[in-house]
């Protein structure tokens, strides 16, 4: 099987929590590592035993127990921000891999429950411990009575597969957004550096012009003084022999 296709098939099995418990920066990098033989199929706690079995079937290998060094499956949960304690530091929104947290600097932040994957990456950066994990309200999240995508059962249910696909899309959109912002920053810095270089070059050119003119004036004065001295030396002395 073509490697890109294999990576896509592996990624389609993974729960798309983007939680990094597997040791990689997201589900797709983990899928690539599995396809390249650099990672085992049992490093994804959110996928659980069912995820391991699905990966084993795809790859034609024997299933192995979950490597608990990467964690253990947890009950489904979504993040909740205590808005009374939130100081608007934006650290949680920066950590969220699917942009499921909204809020401006120094303003209250809120989790979009329907988009939260339960990755818990927002908890550690919070300086005031105002984020907790709670059971998802399926109705409020628009999921009906179905469990969200990050449970092991996502492999077998269409609704959960759609939710996982949405999480994957939001993850990719975030990466693209971050790349655009990085390029914009680099362009601004380049323009600023160019402006500074231009200003420095202009100042240097003006200073050089000033120095050149000053040197020319000094040479002219020196030449004029030399001519005056020569003329003075050549002038006859007045006759003082007669009273």
From TrEMBL:
Residues 223-243 are annotated as: Disordered. Keywords: 4Fe-4S, Cell inner membrane, Cell membrane, Electron transport, Iron, Iron-sulfur, Membrane, Metal-binding, Repeat, Translocase, Transport. InterPro entries: 4Fe-4S_dom, 4Fe4S_Fe-S-bd, 4Fe4S_Fe_S_CS, Elect_transpt_cplx_RnfB/RsxB, RnfB_subfamily. Pfam families: Fer4_21, FeS. SUPFAM superfamilies: 4Fe-4S ferredoxins. Residues 2-61 form the 4Fe-4S domain. GO terms for molecular function: 4 iron, 4 sulfur cluster binding; electron transfer activity; metal ion binding. It comes from the Bacteria. NCBIfam families: PRK06991.1, rnfB. This is Electron transport complex protein RnfB. It comes from Nitrosospira briensis.
């Amino acid at each position: 099987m073509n490697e890109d296709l294999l990576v896509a098939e592996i990624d389609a099995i993974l729960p798309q929590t983007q939680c990094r418990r597997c040791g990689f920066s997201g589900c797709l990098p983990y899928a690539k590592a599995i396809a390249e033989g650099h990672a085992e199929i049992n490093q994804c706690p959110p996928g659980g035993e069912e995820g391991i079995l699905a990966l084993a079937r795809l790859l034609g290998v024997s299933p192995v127990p979950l490597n608990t060094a990467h964690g253990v499956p947890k009950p489904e949960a979504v993040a909740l921000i205590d808005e009374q304690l939130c100081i608007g530091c934006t650290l949680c929104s920066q950590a969220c891999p699917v942009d499921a947290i909204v809020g401006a600097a120094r303003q209250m932040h809120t989790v979009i429950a329907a988009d939260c994957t339960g990755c818990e990456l927002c908890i550690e950066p919070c300086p005031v411990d105002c984020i907790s994990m709670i059971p998802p309200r399926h109705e409020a999240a628009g999921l009906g009575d179905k469990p969200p995508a990050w449970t092991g059962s996502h492999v077998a249910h269409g609704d959960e597969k759609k939710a996982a696909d949405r999480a994957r899309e939001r993850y990719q959109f975030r990466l693209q957004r971050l790349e655009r912002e990085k390029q914009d920053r680099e362009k601004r810095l380049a323009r600023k550096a160019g402006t500074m270089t231009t200003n420095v070059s202009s100042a240097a050119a003006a200073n050089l012009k000033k120095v050149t003119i000053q040197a020319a004036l000094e040479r002219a004065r020196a030449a004029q003084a030399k001519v005056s001295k020569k003329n003075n030396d050549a002038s006859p002395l007045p006759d003082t022999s007669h009273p």
